[in-house]
Amino acid sequence: MSAAVLPDAVVATVGDSTTTEADLNFAAEDLSQELQQMPPEQRKAFLVRVLIDMKVMTKAGAEAGMAETPLFKQRLKYLKDRSLRRAYFADTIANGITEEAA
To answer: What pTM value is reported for the model?
Structure first.
């Protein structure tokens, strides 16, 4: 029996930025359609590559000042709202549905 994987366990490091198991889970939610099309044993490596690429591109975008543009700030607000809605739905609504309630 394998040990439980901790959400804050580091799976990759790019410069001074780390990628954790929780990050992999977030990416898996976001990329669920792509993951369904590949063998299960390739999914984690795929997600790690995607997240490493994301970290590299994030650093380049930040260095270019893109995070300070009004359009980016507007997009960030939208993504925050969407993430909060998803989290609320998953934690409150989806987990609150029991067989008895159904």
So the answer is: 0.75
